[in-house]
Structures are given as structure tokens and as C-alpha cells.
Amino acid sequence: MNNKIYFIEGLANLGINEGELFELQYSRNRFTYKSLLKFEDSPEAICIFKNKIYIAGYKNFYVVNNFTKEIVFKDAFWSDLYPNSIAIIDETKVYLGIRSGIVKLNLPEKKMIFYKALQKKW
Asked: How far is the C-alpha of 106 from the C-alpha of 92, rounded, in Å?
């Protein structure tokens, strides 16, 4: 985004639940990184859409605009379901992949719908 590289790191294990957003920097044949934001829980999936960064955390969902974070969903039901992907059509149609299903988020209205994967019977 903006000709820069950003990455997330986090840990949700044994009572630890935290993470950060970093900027990768390159100067004088050397890579370094700079911490930009700290999160209240482990960031699990990231997507950039229209110069905003969308982050699904272990329990929360964040929107980062100009490196100011907003928690849109706090303590969401998906903790322990490990968010793994985000797909965005617009802010009313944000899809979050989690273990055993998909969550459709409507960010302006702060609504969510969980679509559970069907179980095959053998």
C-alpha cells in the first residue's frame, strides 16, 4: 500500500493474545521494521481495500484508516475459530473465512451473519 510493505504478527496461545502492525523498511542494503500499531488481540488475517487496512483478530475486527485503528467488532464469537482470510466487495459485504464457515460482515451497520459449512454424511 502506498509503495510500502506492511505485515502483521501476533500470538494467541496460553493466555497470551496480542499483536502488532509493522512497516518493512529498506535502506543502505539493510532491512529493518517499524512498529505502527499494537492490537488488543492477535491479528490473524489482513486485507487492504481502498487504502484502508482490514484486520481480523483472534476476537476482534479492526479497520485501520491513516494508521488510526477502529474496533468494529469487539469480542466476536469467532475466537478459537481462527480467522484465516478476508474478502471485501464493499463495506457492507466483507467476508471473513473462519474454521467451519464464513462470516458476512456489514461494517456500517455492525451486523454479522455466520454461514456454517455443511457436514457430509458418508
From this structure: 4
For the chain, state the CA radius of gyration: 16
| pTM listed for this prediction | 0.87
Question: Residue 30: CA atoms inside 13 Å, Cβ hemisphere, count?
Answer: 3
Residues 39 and 20: beta-carbon distance below 8 Å: yes
In angstroms, the CA 68 to CA 92 distance is 21
d(CA 39, CA 28): 30
- Report pLDDT digits (tens) over 46-97: 999 999 999 999 999 999 999 999 999 999 998 888 899 999 999 999 999 9
CA distance 96 to 86: 5
Domain boundaries, the chain: 5-116
The superfamily in CATH containing domain 5-116 is: TolB, C-terminal domain (2.120.10.30)
